[in-house]
TrEMBL record:
<protein>
    <submittedName>
        <fullName>Low affinity iron permease family protein</fullName>
    </submittedName>
</protein>
<keyword id="KW-1133">Transmembrane helix</keyword>
<feature type="compositionally biased region" description="Basic residues">
    <location>
        <begin position="142"/>
        <end position="158"/>
    </location>
</feature>
<keyword id="KW-0812">Transmembrane</keyword>
<dbReference type="GO" id="GO:0055085">
    <property type="term" value="P:transmembrane transport"/>
</dbReference>
<feature type="region of interest" description="Disordered">
    <location>
        <begin position="134"/>
        <end position="158"/>
    </location>
</feature>
<dbReference type="Pfam" id="PF04120">
    <property type="entry name" value="Iron_permease"/>
</dbReference>
<feature type="transmembrane region" description="Helical">
    <location>
        <begin position="41"/>
        <end position="60"/>
    </location>
</feature>
<dbReference type="InterPro" id="IPR007251">
    <property type="entry name" value="Iron_permease_Fet4"/>
</dbReference>
<feature type="transmembrane region" description="Helical">
    <location>
        <begin position="7"/>
        <end position="29"/>
    </location>
</feature>
<keyword id="KW-0472">Membrane</keyword>
Amino acid sequence: MEKFAGYAANITGSTTAIVIAFVIILAWACAGPFFHYSETWQLVINTGTTIITFLMVFLIQKSQNKESLAVQLKLNEIIAAQERASNRLIDVEGLTEDELKTIHQYYCALKQKAELEDSLQESHSIEDAEINHEFKQEQSLHKRKNKKANTQQHRKGA
């Protein structure tokens, strides 16, 4: 069934399938005058499209699930391979919506801290960003104190 679903998804998503579907609709429309636009003529296209749509919903969902899982596995591999990446994000798709919102809030805070960075090239985990932010705040405070002390010394010397 797995192979059939993959094969069917590839075929139905092809340009050839779209052309065939268009030709079928065109043939049905052209047949209307011969059948005097009867209810049977309309029922044929309605039944056919309903059945195809019903089957395609499941086929598309199966393909999308497989594709999503493959992407998630690739992302998990990237996270696991990065020394400074937070391993808490591996298999994050299994969390509840509330848990995802909490992690999203952390990343919003990280983004705000990253905007204070001088370089666009730097990337940090949440923990690294917290440490770097605190370090920079301490350095900034230290610079202000030194500047204030130098200004006071300069005034005393003048």
